[in-house]
Design brief:
2 domains, 4-stranded mixed beta sheet, Nucleotidyltransferase, domain 5, 249 residues, alpha/beta
């Protein structure tokens, strides 16, 4: 298969996420790209999945689309988003035990997979971009910081803890709130399964990571930073078939 076709796509709510392979087909080097939604036809990926809108003009091949039924996450309910299924399945497989995946994207999704590799529930709350946009839209004095996930949190986790600037105070407040949510969820799941590890992913992960690492409860290998977890899972489910045909895991 030509190198130009070695790509995988996850369509999110705010951005399109690509994995591209280069180098030796037997041991390709992957790079991950996060872009605004494409306008018009796109190069056909080996596999793709979507949680956001799929424009007809993209002309993505229907046969290459993965659905929830293609993700081998035990106990996954029919309503589960494929991004959560991909992240939960791959994190549990990589860790080899119980995980809580915190996907900090447009929505902060917390997805729990127990020590048997079964979906064990989760939680959802508005992500940073939605919270910042709501503050701007719902008040007279606060600025509108709407935009892509991560736009309002740049540096929020490492800047002044008590900002004087209004926009910075909004970003810091949202970042601290999201981090506190993840930490409390981690405390609860680790009380149920002490060996449970927390896996952070998503566009706002870099802003939350330093805040989460302040917690002594998540020291050592208790917290894993895997920014491209869903794309890694997509690649694992549909690897490069090579000249001899596909070999699914």
């Amino acid at each position: 298969m030509p190198e130009s076709q070695l790509r995988w796509l996850l369509i999110g709510n705010s951005r399109w996420h690509w994995a591209e392979a280069s180098g030796d087909p037997g041991q390709p080097c992957l790079r991950f790209l996060h872009r605004t939604p494409a306008a018009g036809p796109v190069a056909a990926p080996l596999a793709w999945a979507a949680v956001g809108p799929v424009p007809a003009e993209a002309r993505l091949p229907a046969a290459a689309r993965l659905g929830l039924e293609d993700v081998p996450l035990a106990g996954a309910p029919a309503w589960l988003g494929i991004d959560r299924a991909l992240a939960g399945w791959w994190a549990a497989r990589e860790v080899g035990g119980a995980v809580l995946v915190a996907d900090a994207g447009t929505v902060l999704s917390l997805t729990r997979v127990d020590c048997r590799g079964r979906f064990a529930g989760g939680r959802l709350m508005a992500g940073a971009g939605l919270q910042l946009a709501a503050m701007g839209a719902g008040t007279e004095a606060l600025p509108s910081l709407a935009g892509l996930a991560g736009a309002g949190l740049s540096g929020a986790g490492e800047g002044e803890p008590w900002p004087l600037d209004t926009a910075e105070a909004m970003g810091r407040g949202v970042a601290e709130g999201l981090a506190a949510t993840v930490l409390e969820a981690a405390r609860q799941v680790r009380a149920l399964e002490p060996g449970c590890r927390i896996v952070l992913t998503g566009g706002d992960g870099p802003a939350l990571l330093p805040l989460l690492r302040r917690s002594p409860e998540l020291g050592g290998d208790g917290l894993l930073d895997r920014p491209d977890l869903c794309l890694e899972a997509l690649v694992a489910l549909r690897p490069d078939p090579g000249p001899q045909g596909s070999d699914r895991p």
